[in-house]
Amino acid sequence: MMGKRGRVYLLGWLWAALALGLVGAARADTDDDRAQCDGVSHFMAADISRETLEKGLQHVIEACTKVITDKSRFTDDLAKRRMANQMIGTVDTTDPTRPTDLADGFGKRGLAYQLLGELPAAVADYSAALKGRSPMDAETASIRLNRGAAYLHMGDWDHAIADFNDALTRDPKNRAADNILVSLGAAYFGKGDQGKALESFTRAMKLNPASALAMMNRAALYLNRGDEDLALADLNQAMKQHANNSGALISRGAILARMGRADDAIADYSAAIKLQPNNALGWLGRAFAEESKHNRAAAEPDARQAIKIDPNSAQAHQLLATLLQADGDAGGASAELDKAARLDPQNPRLFTLRGDAALSVGDRDGAIAEYGRAIAIDPTAVSALNNRGVAYLAKSNLRAAEADFTAVLDLNAGDREGAIADFASALQIEPGNREALRHHGFLQQEKGAFAVAEADYAGVVAQDAKDQDALRGRGFAELSLKRYDAAIADLSAAITLDPKDVAAYRFRSIAYAAKNQAKLAMADLDTLDRLGAGSGAQAQTCTATRFGKTVPCSVTTP
After folding, report:
1. Angle at alpha carbon of residue 306, lines to 146 and 293, rounded to 5°
2. What percent of the chain has pLDDT over 70?
3. Which range of residues forms the domain containing residue 522?
């Protein structure tokens, strides 16, 4: 099941595009507070800066709060007067206020809170608004929809699903039923029920074949399942009907980038930016696409612009940190990672990157602490485990390093390429790390990349000329490359260190035979017989050390 964070990012455009505008049209009123409270609907489609939006919404909240306070006081006074009239037998027929007026105030203030991202406050106001409404009116359905959207972006999938289903039930002929279905599909998607999510999105498209929102969300679901072609087809259809839909352009750009079509993705992101320059997702997407082409000069200003528009984008801060680190600005990268981690404290990747930054400047203890935070969040964070092992090795804490490296191998069981990538990452951080070189060389040797393996083992031998495993490993790589003299020299050195190194004898006998030195080859084979390591016994008696464990050499050498 996809993590909560990933689900919210994947459908990140959703809440802003929901039918939040279903909150009733403003009623004529001369009261300034009421007019400002009603004015929340004007912010729905406004293309203004975040700062301007926040200031305007704060005014709306203040106005709505005054309306709520005034209506609550008036309602209390009216109730007291009625009670007094009843006691003296007088019937009071005056009712100058509608019972829904107070609910209106809560509903509109809830919407303002929602636009500001203050979701718990929005949920509280929507709940208060529902208490003053008829169960079957259209306004109740729209408030349930809005509250469901707030729950959706709080990751409260079950409450969101309940509200969206309720909105459909209370107002089944709602003209925005397709949007409610899209919202319902997003909640099912967040919960991990992709079957019901797909059903909801498809129902929405049947109700409204021109619904770009339904197409975009179904495309997101297809993309999450790995069906990139189906996702692209939905977005191409959306673009045919809505050529100027910036959200569809951004979504298609993301799919094209994932398919390796960076230039096409950049074109879509650029078109989206032209249509909606204040949408941070367009700038961020283009920054990622440029970074994938190693065009850091173009990626960095786009990442900075995304942050300027949306300072709370942890992804943008993370990307900028990666770009700054690549440019050698360790201090700037660290500052951006700190911001990202504060915004997204449950993202293990951020703490892994912070550990990498610390290790790159020699702060091994700081790196170990950051990797530990990443591992505490996700015990299967291979990069954090691997790089913490590197940091432990640099501190000569061999036992701790062995535990981390063993965990990496266990997690990468059957995934040689994944393990190679992890050790390569470790070598980027600390190029001369002996253990990373040794095991990277071993894995490269397993896949037949003997020249790479030879270079890795050479790096180990350069630091310790008596490293028996590295000498044997380099000897085998040289043998495979038909560099027989070099192979014989390395294998002989391994045998000098351990006269019972069965693998070294066997490989050296092959090298001698290749050089037509039959007597020397036979001598090595005789030695194998004396050691009880003939062809039938090799796996039992030939051993080597790997992460401090003794294993048959048939495991450690091809």
Report:
1. 125
2. 73
3. 465-556
Residues 6+ apart with CB under 8 A from 1: 192
d(CA 457, CA 437): 7
Q: Classify residue 503: in a domain, yes or no.
A: yes
Backbone angles phi, psi at 358, to 5 degrees: -65, -45
Q: How many domains does the chain have?
A: 1
347 and 374 Cβ atoms separated by less than 8 Å? no
**Percent of the chain whose predicted confidence (pLDDT) is above 90:** 23
Neighbours of 254 (CB within 10 A): 23
Mean pLDDT of 184-201: 91
* Euclidean distance between CA atoms 254 and 252, whole angstroms: 5
Please state the three-class secondary structure of 280-349 as a single string. Answer: HHHHHHHHHHHHHCCCHHHHHHHHHHHHHHCCCCHHHHHHHHHHHHHCCCHHHHHHHHHHHHHHCCCCHH
The dihedral built from the CA positions of residue 121, 38, 147 and 116, taken in this order, carries a sign that is negative
In tens, the pLDDT along 255-301 reads 888 888 999 999 999 999 999 999 999 999 999 999 988 899 999 99
The token duo for 295 is 């065009």
CA nearest 150: which of 179, 171, 121?
121
pLDDT at residue 90 greater than cutoff 50? no
Structure tokens at 278: 């204040």
The number of residues making up the chain comes to 558
Residue 267, domain member (yes or no): no
Average pLDDT value for the chain? 76
Considering the domain boundaries, does residue 104 fall inside one?
no
* Residue 360 domain flag: no
The whole-model pTM stands at 0.54
533: CATH = 1.25.40.10
Residues 68 and 128: their CA atoms lie apart, in Å, by 11
Q: Is residue 294 left, alpha or beta, with left meaning phi > 0 and alpha meaning psi from -120 to 50?
A: left
